[in-house]
Structures are given as structure tokens and as C-alpha cells.
Specification:
This is YeeE/YedE family protein. The protein is built from six helices and no strands. With about 140 residues, the protein is mostly helical. It is globular.
């Protein structure tokens, strides 16, 4: 049951990304181009995502366990560290250059195109390479 709900939620998310135009790299890059051809569409998409999540977070405060899981994950550490700064910088640079982030990259596979597939492969390669690189470079510090 959990896998079915996860697949349906992922399909709904991908459909929402496609309908809102967030798989269109030009639209995403237009959001980031505040001094040029700025496109505010992403602000409405973000607002449309934040409002239902605020309600969901409020509801989960009164719930002891999730409906399809064993426990809620603990809240993340609210500290600013090297990993967060480096990771968010790389994420932002990749998002700005390619106009895709993980969700839209997955959704872009549905309409084909080598650009989205290449981005997705590079993203997965980076995710696979990060843990051993982190171990290697943390031992040098």
C-alpha cells in the first residue's frame, strides 16, 4: 500500500510540475533572471505548494504516527554548516545553469529530450560520488 501511495504522489507531483510549466527550463531560468525577462510563475507555484504543506504540518503535530509509516523523522538540525552552504551553492548553480532541479528533471523524462536525461544522469552521478568524496576530503581537513 505504501508503494502505491508513493507512486500516486510522485505521479501527481510530476503532473503538477508539467502543468505549471516547471519542466520548461526557460520558464525556470526566467524566474532567476530578475534583471531581464523575469517570469513570476514560479512564485505562484511555490505559494501553491507552501499553503497545503503548512496545513499538513499543522495536522501532523496532533498525530503520533504517520498513516503509512512507523514514525515521523526527527526535525533537522537548525545549524548552518559547511555541508549546507556547499550543497545549496551547488544546487543553486546547477538549477540556474540547467533550469532543472530533481523533481522537474524526473518529470522531464516523460516528454523526452536529451537535455533532461543528461541532467538526470549527471545529478545521479553527483549523488553517488558525494559520499565517498565527503569521506575522502573530511579526512584531509
Amino acid at each position: 500500500m505504501r508503494s502505491v501511495v508513493a507512486a500516486l504522489a510522485g505521479a501527481l507531483f510530476g503532473l503538477g510540475l508539467m502543468l505549471s510549466g516547471m519542466t520548461d527550463t526557460n520558464r525556470v531560468q526566467g524566474w532567476l533572471d530578475i534583471f531581464g525577462a523575469w517570469d513570476p510563475t514560479l512564485a505562484f507555484v511555490l505559494g501553491g505548494a507552501i499553503l497545503p504543506m503548512a496545513v499538513a504540518w499543522r495536522l501532523t503535530r496532533a498525530t503520533a504516527t504517520p498513516a503509512l509509516g512507523t514514525a515521523f523523522p526527527p526535525p533537522p538540525e537548525p545549524k548552518l554548516g559547511r555541508n549546507l552552504v556547499i550543497g545549496s551553492t551547488l544546487f543553486g548553480a546547477g538549477w540556474g545553469l540547467a533550469g532543472l532541479c530533481p523533481g522537474p528533471a524526473m518529470a522531464s523524462l516523460a516528454w523526452g529530450g536529451w537535455g533532461g536525461a543528461l541532467f538526470l544522469l549527471a545529478m545521479v552521478a553527483g549523488m553517488v560520488a558525494t559520499p565517498p568524496l565527503r569521506r575522502r576530503f573530511s579526512s584531509l581537513a
